[in-house]
Amino acid sequence: MVSNALTTSPILDATGKPFSASNESYRGARLERKWKTWIPDHTSGDAAIGNSFDMMLRRIREMGRDDATIKASKRAIVKHVIGPGILAFADALADGSIEEYDDDFNDPSDSWFERWSEERECDIEGRFSFEEMQAHQWDEMMESGESLWLRVDDDTPGRSVRLAYQLLEAEQLDESRDWDAGYDTPYECRRGIEYDTLGRPKFYWLFDVHPYDNNFGGTFTATSKRVPANRVIHTYLPNRTSEHRGITWFTNLQSAKDLDWYLSNELTSAAIGALFSVVINRATGAGSGTGFASSNPSATSTNSTINLGPGTIADMGPDDKVTPVESNRHARDSKPFIDLILQTQAMSVGISRLRLTGDYSQTSYTSARAAHLDDQAFFVMLQGFANRNFIRPIRKEHQRQAVISGRIPKMTARKYLEHQVRLEDFFVQPPGREQIDPEKETNAAAARVRFGFSTHAEECGKRGRHWRKVARQRAREERYWLKTVGRLPDLGESKAYLEEYSARVAAEQAAAAQTAGSPA
Q1: DSSP secondary structure letters along 103-124
Q2: In this predicted model, what pLDDT tens digit does every residue of 141-154 receive, in sequence order?
Q3: How many domains does the chain have?
Q4: SS3 for 410?
Q5: Rounded to an integer, what distance in angstroms lies between the CA atom of residue 289 and that of residue 298?
Q6: N or C: which end of the chain has fewer CB within 10 A?
Q7: pLDDT score at 291
């Protein structure tokens, strides 16, 4: 007797024993019917990226050019993380002091760095300021998963320092350079990066030009060059500790593609629905009216078609019926589906749907504020990453070269090395934000400072301003008003404050006059 029962091979675990659906403690590991074929292979972070990198990069480059949600995601994060630029100011204290700032060192250090940035000395190609390079670098890191700052020397006369950088894209890493460590080479090389036995990068294999630049007019034949790792700042956000290269932030780009596909179909449906068509049901056959042409070429009578328009006349019998052809699709039903896709897209890059779409029409103030605070926490984390990985290292390297070049008065290279820890303290200022309710937020900031819950540095920082620069500028303005007008402008200060300030200025003037030998 032959059994008709189907037999299947058991699913085995890593030891070769059959999986048991009932012995797994976690539900996610149980082999229920709908999940029994879902058994992915184990893979390291680098292996997963290596298997997917090329195709993912091809697709995201295309969508980065054409897809609105990808562009909006990048724009939202770059705008709030980098904004007009993350600034780094020299913040060294005077030698032996825990209160006084060494402004004789800090001021020239800041001035030379500002010139290096604003006059585009920072970019070896002379195209971008340092703040603009930050924005391009972050945009590239989001799109491809990683970006590269290549340090170069430029000895052009008139520069503040020789230091400059070149931004490189992920494709300029030569992935064909891949081998294991052996007798002939002490370093393992993985996808264009050589590592020592501790896993630290030692060399990068880089193309001088982009391998997919169409200006070559033919097959790309350039040879990559071996560049020491101390000349390269490789920025990427790893998702796993076993990742040594980055992957695009838009790994779920399928949701963006689904939205594009869905909207295209909705537009097609709307276009078809906008066409006005009618069907005439003939009481006696279909000889000479309006309708579809017969598919039978040998038919003696066919349904002819006519274009409807002003003044159209159809030959109809008394019992014929006219039925308009209408689309039953309702575009209003598409919004919840579109919102779901946008929510998924926003979640994939770590921001709220409100931030992605900019549509606050259907939300409350409380919900919008909660979304803003959640986004802000994410942006602060990303700004910390930027500070540690390229803002502070580049600022530090510029300051060292400024000292070596003799740009900072009374500071020699030997003295700098002796006080390096003290002198390489920087105040990093992320971009600020405008106030939604200026009066309430300003009063709240003043109250926090007054009651000791905050400082001038913290409150100015929230507005994207360096507190010592604000204090200096305010002092300049007050001296100017007193010198040229004789009184301070009405800034809403209390009467007691103005009286105290006027008395202090008068005392200073009297002391100066007495020192000069003239009567007070």
Answers
A1: HHHHHHHHHHHHHHHHTTTTBT
A2: 999 999 999 999 99
A3: 2
A4: coil
A5: 18
A6: N
A7: 43
